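Pasting as-is:
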Amino acid sequence: MRHFYLIFLLFSTTLMANSYYHTPLVFGGVAATAGLGTQAAIYHSLMQTELKGWSRPETGSSIRLESACGIEAEFHLVGDHRRNYLLLGITNSSAKNVVIKNNAVTFRLDKTKERYPGFTYNSSDNRVISGWWSINLIPFPSKEEFRDVKEIEVQVPVIDEASGEQCSLTTHFNKTKKIEAENISYSAFEFSLDGGGAIEQFGNIRRLGRPRGMAAFEFNFFPRPQSGFGLVFSNEAGFQDSDKKNIHKKFDGAESYSANISYLGFQYVYRHFFSSEFFLQYAIGPGYQSVEDGKEEDLGRIESRGLAFSQKLVMNWRFFQWYAPSGETIDIFTGLGLVHFYTPSMKIGGEHLDGHRVGGLLRVGVSF
């Protein structure tokens, strides 16, 4: 029973950690796991993603310690391949309850540009009662913009809950050196597997019938958080027409046949992040398509080949994130979407079989 209790606490804390370590994590998860070391493990994982290019030589860390109005604050810069964050720890040593205005935190970049946090959800204020402490992850609005910044001033508004008086916790970060690992953190590799079926066909391709199903594999590389490129391989198997009306005459006089279409293509990929968990992905590009006779005795015989195009639109949900001991962030995600293939010119037995194919798909993938 004791082992089950420990596993339950670790699992629940991990789930709360996926929501940027809000107050419920600190007052619920950390308090509940006191003595178990879970909070130390979470903190250690975050420190593995610290931006070392902003570290002070004397500490080897980006940590900045500040105090004001009876409040002590610990500032770190951390990041993954999507975003960079301010990791803010607050200890309330005063006799009053205070409110940390997360949305009103300001970042002054290189003394010229002022930015506010890039929350992709409605972030609430963080209430810290007397004698308690809290941790919060506050996202920078743009990782790309952050890349060329040399100096950052951070101001955190702190409100006295009773009187409404405000004071500010202020700190400064200076980039000390370029770190190759951090340059790599602006990129990501992604592998995904897709499976699905036909929705509709347009044009002469309808003569070939409908496939039983589709399977696809993608490998994408993102040198920037939003834009990337990659390779896709897909196979649509068992093109058949149950009504025997539109079957191409090449395949055994419409008595029985099966055809497979294979596609290998290059694609440009764009991602839009709605939140830390949900992102939309669109891919488009040209490729090479081949049609094979799928009958057992003729399996592998190419009936037609040529140029084709594909595009995909997928809504993805990142349901698990793991911080590797090396500091890398590994995401596991799933998604639902649509895929569209266009064949401008295809002939089998002198007949045109060009047209459009639209299908639905289910995706599972991993990125790091």
